[in-house]
Structures are given as C-alpha cells and as structure tokens.
Amino acid sequence: MNDDNKISVVINTYNAERHLQQVIDAAKGFDEIVVCDMESTDNTVNIAQNNGCRVVTFEKRDYNIVEPARQFAIESATFSWVLVLDADEIVSKQLTAYLYEHISKPDCEEGVAIPRKNYFMGKFMHASYPDYILRFFKKDLTTWPPIIHASPIVKGRVIRLPRNRKDLAFEHLANDSIATLNHKNNVYSDNEISKRRDKHYGIGALLVRPSFRFIRAYILKGGFKDGVAGFIYAVWQGIYQFTIVAKIMEYKRKQND
C-alpha cells in the first residue's frame, strides 16, 4: 500500500486520560496514530506512548481552545489522508473500512463530513444528531483556522456520510453534566463575541433566537423523543443563544461608553 492509500489518525489531548485508551483501541486499524499533547499533567502521554502512538507536543496556551494545535497536529501526520479525533470520540470498524474504501476509489472527494452520536443524562440525543463534523481530508489540501469551533478548510470536494448510517458515526463518549454545560455555555459564548461583534441584535433577538433554537432542538429535530433529558437539552440550547445575544449587547454598550 503506497502512502496515498494510508491514513494517519491525529488526536489532540490535554489531560485526556479518562477516555484515551478506548479512543486509541478503536483507532488501531489505521496506519498511524499521532497524539498531539498540550503539556498534560496526568497520565495522557504515558497512555499514548504505551500504545505505540507517536507523541508530539504543542505548547499549552488556552485549555478551552484546542484549534491552534489542530494545524500543528495535521502537519505532524505522516500520510496523505488524515482523520482527526477528539480524545473522547470512538471510531467504529465500519467507519474505518468505509474510509479506506473511499480513498481507494479513483478521483474520490477530498473531504468527508462524519456524523456524531452525542449523549446527555445517559441518553442518545436525537436533537443533536447527525452533528456533522468535517474530520477526514487530504492533508495537503487542508488548513484549520485557529478559531474556537472552526471547521477545517478543504480545497476540494466535501461529501457527507448518510445520516441513516449510524454505524458510520463517531461515538461521542462525553456525557456532560448540567454544571459542565453551564461552564461551556459561559466559555463558548465569550468566544462568540469576537466572531459576532459586528452583528446588531435588537431586543427581539433575545426572544426569537432562543425560542427558535428550542423549537428546532425539541420539535424539529426530535428532542421530544428523549423525555426529560431532551427537554432540558433543548432549553439549554435556547439559554446558550440568549447568552450569546446578551453578551454581544453588553459588549456593544461598553464600546459606546
């Protein structure tokens, strides 16, 4: 098999010992696993080394923003095709086989967006599926912007895997508590200010955006199927939108003072 038909897996980590062994075990069907660690203080690096992963280090800058390390991790990969995993994402055997079949085809697409199965309060969340993320691509045609929640930019064609093929979806091991969601809400909404500071939201946005996000999550995407957990998750989605708009309004008032 030449290098054009080989796949490198890259995993960005910081104190990721909780799920890392499971993630690595599931990814051992690929040609290489590169762990890009941001100076972890737990057992992360030992786990990676003990499993034969190649470990590279990226200076820790901000625990909450991993994106600046993404590009470094991608550039550290040996092979032409790269699959990016978070340290709490499991890749299935079916997905592994699918990706190798994909790159074996002549003139295949340069990027593949993969669905992800998310959980909350121990339940699979219909409201957040398929949660497509662009994580498989040709290395030399891809850049990853250093902005939180940014998606990679692929110079080429990108396809989405069928949403009804749940066997091809990532299994997201994170099962965030409400306290964790509230923390993420605060951190992520802070980062949205820099991305949306040119937006001009009126008071109506404080009602419309949260309401739409709740309706989208609970009704349009089937969150009602998930019982109480689905209702809480949908409300949290609305709260997140409310927080973003409120913080941008606060930011603009401070700028005008």
UniProtKB/TrEMBL annotation:
Domain Glycosyltransferase 2-like intervals: 8-126
Q: Which SUPFAM superfamilies match?
A: Nucleotide-diphospho-sugar transferases
> What keywords appear on the UniProt entry?
Transferase
Q: Which Gene3D superfamilies match?
A: Spore Coat Polysaccharide Biosynthesis Protein SpsA, Chain A (3.90.550.10)
* Single GO MF annotation: transferase activity
Organism domain of life: Bacteria
Enumerate the InterPro entries for this protein. Glyco_trans_2-like, Nucleotide-diphossugar_trans
Is Transferase there in the keyword field?
yes
* Family indicated by similarity: Belongs to the glycosyltransferase 2 family. WaaE/KdtX subfamily.
Name of the protein: Glycosyltransferase involved in cell wall biosynthesis
